[in-house]
Structure formats: structure tokens, C-alpha cells
Design goal:
37% strand; 9-stranded mixed sheet; Metal Binding Protein, Guanine Nucleotide Exchange Factor, Chain A
Length: 166
């Protein structure tokens, strides 16, 4: 999946910026640590070789999230930006990799996830995400007026007269 290009990104407040080149791989991680760090059902990431990554401005803070992995985030706004492990360099890769949070790219459309890792830890309802009703903006309809998700039925009223999704 190697793409030769320059990718730029940073945190929400702009205090920390990075530049990366040559995406090695990209995907979604469903492990419990990534879910808790991101606050989402999966974390979207991309990897670059260590020599193809640099912090362009600011100084990220560090968090040792597991025995062999350190995550870096903006101390001002809290955005999780990237992480590194301290395991031996994989012979098949020939370099240590930096795992960057895909959503922190200035243009996240430029890197498309290719895999789901730690699928054994995924939350069961994640599989239904593609079937949910989609809204183009932050304005959403009342839950009682939405189409039911695939495999669900929409009941307009319960016995107490309140709308519900069954």
C-alpha cells in the first residue's frame, strides 16, 4: 500500500503538527486500549516508517499505554496523534513503524484503511454501522421519525404513547 506523498496533520488546537511520507499500511484497530484512547468503537490509523515521520512543530506529551507502546498527544487539547512501540524491528519491515491516528490528517481522504485488526475485540454493533441511516450534517431527525436500522422494526408508539425503536 506504499504511497509516496507528503501527509500533514496535527491536533485539534494546532499546537502540535506532524509530517509523514510513504504510508506503509492503514486500518482500524478494535482493541480495548484503542477504543478507550479514542473514545470510539475503533481507531483508524496509518503506519509510516520511523524515518518518514517527524513532528513539525510543538511538543507532544507521552503516555505509556501498554508495556511496549507509547502514545503521543497534545497536552493543550488532548488529541491523540501517534504512537510508537519499543519492540525489536520486524525483519520483514526493516524499520520501526509510527502508528498515526488517521483522523488527525489535514486530508484524511488521502489514506484509506485496508484492514481491521483485533477484530476479536470489536463491539458487536459495529458490524451494523454501514446499515444505519445517514445524515449529511449535524442536524438529525427525531429518533421516532427515522428509518429503522436493518433488521430492526420501527414502532411509532408504545402503550404509554411515547415513540420507540423496537
Amino acid at each position: 500500500m506504499t504511497k509516496t506523498s507528503t501527509y500533514q496533520g496535527g491536533c485539534f488546537c494546532g499546537a502540535v503538527r506532524y509530517a509523514a511520507q510513504e504510508v506503509f499500511d492503514a486500518g482500524y484497530c478494535h482493541c480495548t486500549v484503542c477504543r478507550r484512547i479514542s473514545g470510539a468503537p475503533a481507531a483508524a490509523w496509518f503506519n509510516v516508517r520511523e524515518e518518514h515521520f517527524r513532528v513539525a512543530s510543538g511538543k507532544p506529551a507521552a503516555l505509556q499505554s501498554s508495556e511496549h507502546f507509547v502514545r503521543y498527544f497534545c497536552a493543550a487539547c488532548g488529541t491523540h496523534l501517534f504512537g510508537r512501540d519499543d519492540l525489536p524491528i520486524p525483519a520483514t519491515v526493516g524499520s520501526r513503524l509510527v502508528s498515526v491516528m488517521l483522523g488527525t490528517l489535514d486530508d484524511p481522504e488521502t489514506v484509506e484503511p485496508q484492514i481491521h485488526q483485533w477484530w476479536s475485540d470489536h463491539v458487536s454493533w459495529y458490524e451494523n454501522a454501514a446499515d444505519l441511516q445517514k445524515f449529511n450534517t449535524g442536524t438529525i431527525s427525531h429518533p421516532a421519525k427515522r428509518k429503522p436500522a436493518k433488521g430492526k422494526s420501527l414502532e411509532l408508539e408504545q402503550a404509554d404513547g411515547k415513540p420507540s425503536i423496537g
